[in-house]
Amino acid sequence: MAECEKCGLTIGLGCACNLPTAAPRRPYENYYQWTRFGPDALLISSRNMAHVPGACSHIAEDDVLNPESGWGWIPDPDPALWDRISADHPVPATEGNTSRAAVVRCADCLNNL
């Protein structure tokens, strides 16, 4: 059995140095540029529509952070929360404008997740 020169582990029995890197879970993560919100945050617009930062091109971080725009957000939601958003299961914002509650998901975000 050969030892890896990089990590010192046995090749094929612990060494993963030459394995290809996994593709990102979400295609947009390759060029993710938001700084205030992580890629798992949920953003809630004034229309009570949920968005995921970077998953759609029609919103920008500056728009969300502008207090006059009225966005709410959940910085670290339960991973399954996105799938539960509906009129029957409104999801309230925990930060920003906490009067917002998502009842519908952005179709563009949905297509990129």
Description:
This protein is α+β, with helices and mostly antiparallel strands and 113 residues long. The chain has a domain at 35-112. 13% of the residues lie in helices and 15% in strands. The protein has three helices and seven strands, in the order E-E-H-E-H-E-E-E-E-H. It has helices spanning 61-65, 81-84, 107-112, and strands spanning 42-44, 49-51, 72-74, 91-92, 95-96, 101-102, 104-105. The strands form two sheets. Strands 5-3-1-2-7 form a five-stranded mixed sheet. Strands 4-6 form a two-stranded antiparallel ribbon. A hairpin with a 4-residue loop joins strand 1 and strand 2 (49-51). The longest helix is centred in the C-terminal third of the chain and has 6 residues, at 107-112. It starts with 41 loop residues before the first strand and ends with a helix. The mean pLDDT is 86.
Distance between the termini: 41 Å
What low-confidence regions span 5 or more consecutive residues with pLDDT below 50? none
Give me the number of helical elements.
Answer: 3
Average pLDDT over all residues: 86
Number of strands: 7
Tell me the Rg in angstroms. Answer: 19 Å
Strand content: 15-25%
Q: Major beta sheet, specifics?
A: 5 strands, mixed
Principal-axis shape equals elongated
**Helix proportion:** 10-25%
Q: What is the SS-derived class?
A: alpha+beta
H/E element string? EEHEHEEEEH
* Strand order across the largest sheet: 5-3-1-2-7
